[in-house]
Structure formats: C-alpha cells, structure tokens
Records
---
Amino acid sequence: MSEPKSGEQTKAVARKSAPAGAHPSTPSQGKGTRDPRATSGRLGRAIDHVSAHPLTAVAGAMAVSAGIAFLLPTTKRETEVMGEVADTLGDVARDAADGVVAAGRAQVEGLAQTALAGVGGAVLQAVTANGDTNVG
C-alpha cells in the first residue's frame, strides 16, 4: 500500500505527467485538454492575420461598419442635416457602382469569348485530326 503524497509531491508528479505546452502550475485534466490561453484553428489564424496586417483589419472593419450603416434606415435629423449632400453622394456612389458593374460585365464577356474561341479551336483541331486518322 502506498503512502499519501504531500501537496508538493503531487504537484511535482503532475508537472512530470503534464503534456507539452500545458501551464506548469496546472495539472493535466485528461486527454483533449489544453492551455486555455493558447489559440488554434480559425481564431488563431485570424489573430495572426490581424497582428501581421493591422491596416487591412481596420479597413475590413470599416467596410463592414459602412455596410451595416448603409442597411439602417435614415432618420429625420440625418435627412435635415445632410439633405442634398446625401442625395448627391448617393447618386455618385450609384453611378460608380454601375460603372464598375458595366466594366466587370465587359471583362467577363471578353474572357468568355476568348475561352469559347480557344475551346472551339481545340474542338475543330481535334475533329480535323480525328477525321485525318479515320480517312484512309
């Protein structure tokens, strides 16, 4: 029969049996437990990205905030204060968005035509090559 261990001996045994990376003063609580201060997975990658690119994170947060603000209805006070400026700004933004959509559509159409021409040429070449081998 073994003798009961003192508190200091118990801590020493826990430190020796703790998995790598566990906090030295916290004994392991079984398989699957980890240091709560450690981050992993998506959260860890997000934190690493924000640390590496803080300006990008700020710009992203501003874009999300602007999107949310755009979805909220305008108030009477906002309409009174902003008035024509808001209308003009909205028109300019709408025109810019329309221009971007038109440019994107033209780009996609050009790429689609190029791709179809490439595929069509390849099909024609394959049919011609297949026809040459069957003749004769």
---
Amino acid sequence: MASGYFIQGLYNVSKVSRKRDENMRGISNPVLNHKVFAQHTGGQAMTITGTINKTFFFLILVTLSAFYVWQLYAAGENIQPYMVIGF
C-alpha cells in the first residue's frame, strides 16, 4: 500500500481524518474525545482475501448451525431453547 492512502489509495487518510474531526466538534461526551480515537489509528487494513475468507467461514458456520437445528426440528425435538440462545 502506498503511504498516506487507505484501502488501496481510494481514500486519502488526511481527508478521512479531517472529516472525522469535523464530525467530532459537536460531541460533548468525554469518552468520545479526540485522544481516544487518536490511540486507535494506524491499524492494518483488511485485505480482500481476508474479507472473503471471513465471509465464507461465517457463512459455513451459519449454514451448519441452521442445518443442525433443522435436523432437530425434523426429528420432532424441541428447538425452542436453540431459538432463544440464537443457535
């Protein structure tokens, strides 16, 4: 990645920072001050490959969970506890 650019040069970091500063002027919450957000800048950007991998991982996780619960339902078991906990 080129220095000074975010997400492969599509957004200039200085423009994003300026926009964030403009949005922060009206906030009076002491937890949401500039110092808090300054500590969390400079992290690594997520790659397209990483995004695709995470998407497929969670899609498989949701599909397996749904398959398990539907199998319980088809067998006539009570699935209400699974619905309550979000399984």
